[in-house]
Amino acid sequence: MLVFSSLSELRGWRAQQTTNPIALVPTMGNLHQGHLQLVKRAQQATSQVVVSIFVNPMQFAANEDLDRYPRTFAEDCAALEALGVTAVFAPTVEDVYPRGVANQTSVTVPEISDILCGASRPGHFRGVATIVCKLFNMVQPDIAVFGQKDYQQLQVIRLMTADLSMPVDIIGEPTERADDGLALSSRNGYLSTAERAQAPFIYLLLQDLAKLLKQGVSAGEVEQRGLAALTEQGFRPDYLSVRRQQDLQPVAATDTELVILLAAYLGNTRLIDNLCLQR
Ligand code: AMP
User: Fold this and answer.
1) What confidence tens digit (pLDDT) does each residue in 228-255 have?
2) What gap in Å lies between CA 222 and CA 210, rounded to an integer?
3) Could you tell me which residues come within 8 angstroms of residue 201 by beta carbon, excluding any fewer than 6 positions away?
4) Looking at the whole model, is its pTM more than 0.90?
5) Could you tell me the CA-to-CA distances from 112 to 153, 241, 243, 263 in Å, in that order?
6) What are phi and psi of 158, to 5 degrees?
7) In the prediction, which pLDDT does 203 show?
8) If you write DSSP's letter for every residue of 121-148 in order, what string do you get?
9) Catalytic site residue 32?
10) Main-chain phi, psi angles of 28, to 5 degrees
11) How many CB atoms lie under 10 A from the CB of residue 126?
12) Which atom of ligand 1 approaches the CA of 29 most closely?
């Protein structure tokens, strides 16, 4: 497995790749089975898979967990090598933002970036869209794989790719869960034992709420019941919302492709999850 720790090394290799399509799996490292599932999906599409590992400072606000975000580079590389990944790209912050984050030219995907997670994390999706745009320009992939776990992020990236006519096929891969239903996430490591035992409630709730929607209960009623249930179970909900899948706008009576999205704090840890359904 090749390991590129600078943009120039990556570019030198990329210039020689002229035959097989290249797939990119962008990550912030601390890899778990969810990330590895994205890698396997990429490997179904092509033999040339590049995994980027970069904890992107531009998508963290000053009060967020950038400094304590888990970094496990050696273990990540071992897991990727075992899967037969072609290359890991792990650039430095200086390589990615040579003029500093504050001076960085940025990509903003309007409307979708300011709602839901974007409302509570101002600037977050601008940071995400910018780093993904830069990674696309650096790696020049034909395909890129993202997780549905971060559903709003996936839709932001789909819109950016379409709006800017980027020649990259975006694949969204279903959420990988622990046996008890909790969506795998690097941030689950922040949970105490008691919180970890409580956390699977989120997925049970999403499944119950999906049933209600299919039975014809209105989106507003489902949101109210969901928020009340989260609070009752000791979560501090940030939002719980029923939206249409494509653009995450509020549902109209005629919409059939829906997604329930939520973000909630358990102690100091902010957990997100979502469930897609048809009604
Ligand atoms: P992150 O390292 O958290 O930025 O995530 C990198 C990629 O892995 C993103 O496309 C995420 O959506 C995806 N991902 C994270 N957790 C999961 C999961 N449990 N199942 C599927 N994909 C995931």
Assistant:
1) 999 999 999 999 999 999 899 999 989 9
2) 9
3) 230, 233, 235
4) yes
5) 9, 14, 11, 16
6) -60, -45
7) 98
8) STTHHHHHHHHHHHHHHHH--SEEEEEG
9) no
10) -105, 20
11) 20
12) 2
